Task: structure prediction
Amino acid sequence: MRRRHLVQLAAATLAAASLGAHAQSTFPAKPIKLVIAFPAGGPTDITMRQLADNAGKILGQPVVIDNKPGAGGTLPAQLLQTSQADGYTLAQIPLGVFRLPYTTKIAWDPVKDINYVINLTGYAFGIVVPADSPFKNWGDFVAYAKANPGKLSYGSTGTLTSPHLTTELVAQKLGLQLNHVPYKGSADLAVAITGGHIMAAADSTGFAPLVQAGKIRVLNTWGEKRLDKFPDAPTLKELGIDVVQNSPFGIGAPRDTPPDVVKKLHDAFKKAMEDPSYVAALARYDMLPIYMDPVQYTRFAQDTFKSEKALVEKLGLAKPN
Result:
């Protein structure tokens, strides 16, 4: 009797394993949802839609973009915590995810509770002002801010996002007190800066068309070197501020997503990001491919989790214990 029970148990185990293997081999059998952290119409949305279109053709099923802006870009990662680990729900992982436990009480771990599939790219950032602003250069901006503590208003794509924290870090280094106004994304921020609702904006270079149209002016950029599109705008390092920020981001899946499914997703998105159409979409916003495989991306997550703690504490934004 015991032997028969063991045989039946073994058969059931093999059958379950076979079904699991079959499910993975036929993945994907339906559309995949890719949740991104910023609204429609901005550089993240536009470039991710091109990537999703490319990946869908490779996978044989549509990859559908779902915009979930707000909460400093962390909503997609939070959504993964309650999603099935079957590969059909994916999320953009902005840098703000690694700051979350230091500023907000959460019941999950950004390193351990996300399956890091692939890193894609990063942003080119800068600070801009309206074309009719009295700030003709960065020196004018700093001089006004020093003479008028708390009166210089600047917008960003949200509280605790990279544009917000980097600007605050720069302000701290220079002894400035600025007035931060958060928005949900680049599209809303563009309306605010061109409408005169704020005096400056910190954002990725989705603002390029507004610069080219003569509506705003770039005071600085945040990369290692000047951007070809804005050759007259100095980097922070050129201005004597030892800060470089490109805020890499990629795609994550729920923690227990099967390895075979993760591999299939990684391979498809890697091929999709190598397609000239995606490279061209990135180039519109001075973004470059920054590829990391699952092992490299997981290591990046671990290292960034530690470094972001230091930044949040330095700015005095850590939640009370």
User: Anything to note?
Assistant: Residues 170 and 241 are 7 Å apart (CA to CA). The chain is about 40% helix and 20% strand. Residues 2-25 form the longest helix (24 residues).
